[in-house]
Automatic annotation (TrEMBL):
Residues with PTM N6-(pyridoxal phosphate)lysine: 276
Species the sequence originates in: Streptomyces swartbergensis
GO MF terms, alphabetically ordered: adenosylmethionine-8-amino-7-oxononanoate transaminase activity; pyridoxal phosphate binding
Record-listed pyridoxal 5'-phosphate binding positions: 117-118, 247, 310-311
Official protein name in the record: Adenosylmethionine-8-amino-7-oxononanoate aminotransferase
InterPro entries, alphabetized: Aminotrans_3 (IPR005814), Aminotrans_3_PPA_site (IPR049704), BioA (IPR005815), PyrdxlP-dep_Trfase (IPR015424), PyrdxlP-dep_Trfase_major (IPR015421), PyrdxlP-dep_Trfase_small (IPR015422)
Gene, per the UniProt record: bioA
A Gene Ontology BP annotation from the UniProt entry: biotin biosynthetic process
Amino acid sequence: MPELTVPELLELDRRHVWHPYGPMPGRQEPLVVESASGVRLRLADGSGELVDGMASWWSAIHGYNHPVLNEAARGQLERMSHVMFGGLTHGPAVRLAKLLVDMSPEGLEHVFLADSGSVSVEVAVKMCLQYWRSLGRPRKQRLLTWRGGYHGDTWQPMSVCDPEGGMHELWSGVLPRQVFVGPPPVAYEESYAEQLRAAVERHADELAAVIVEPVVQGAGGMRFHSPAYLRVLREACDAHDVLLVFDEIATGFGRTGALFAAEHAAVTPDVMCVGKALTGGYLTMAATLCTSRVADGISRGEVPVLAHGPTFMGNPLAAAVACASIELLLGQDWLTEVKRIEAGLRDGLAAASDLPGVEDVRVLGAIGVVQLDHAVDMKAATEAAVREGVWLRPFRDLIYTMPPYVTGDADVARIARAVCAAAREG
């Protein structure tokens, strides 16, 4: 096709391109990004640049156009961009698996490489269901979780998203019926811990697993909760023969101030999902890690294989970039950078507490959230942030930021001003 002008591109986009969580044809005109570098998105209409306060849905932790990740991609392209993973293996995938095992909570020894975060949750659920079938307990096929969660947009992940008020409420009555308890309080409450223990005990005979987002719930509401609840769940699952799954797709790779949120509680789950920041935002890839107990249990079953095999599983190009991203993260003082961003967001977002319509302001690691007492006017809030030179993507009653770890202090302050501006206008 010939080079398109921005108006031509937007018209074709409106007519043909279905954007996430949007109607078809689109009703809101998106911004056209021409290029990205560091923490900035350059707009194609010549209007300038925006500081990315979203890290491309929390994945671009090192920013854009990073020379180390670029070189990893170029080097792998010269060898091979893809090869099937059935019956074959290759260095990038093996190295990536070893890196993940070495950095994850102790006991997670086996790695299944998937296409996306949602697929990694599908794989985690399949692992748990097949584990119990292999042990001769096929009735253990339900999942328990708490409300306010979000685990992806494919089938099993949708079933453990909040069924009331969540984005998948439309599918209530069609999805598998799972077991839900109330949302976890911010601080530890023994009465809530008792609810968790009682729910696991009551449903133990039918539960394959408990699945939760540890410490931070993501797209279900950006809520934080006490790490102590993870220890409660670990103990309850052990006591009643139920597997424990942590969805660390949003929280993994340092976002909360620990490499994985499970570390805040010193707990190892039986299965753990990672994604988003795995490749530094360059390519789609995720992984499901499990303990030897789970892998051995499946391998002893009547069907001793995990029957799941995505075409692009273990993609060498994505794996090579993921290795480079992890090594880049671990090779620097990432914790100091995350804590620096945390301090900057605390200072900058403090002013939002006094704004009319603001219900709560909360910060943890490189996560800043302003919660309103009403649904966000998304168009007005987004335009207010753009006027401040920042890209944000509010949703529901939330205006939040998860910036790249390389965001400098001046840009963190700018992001905070933009969040406040969006809260005033939205």
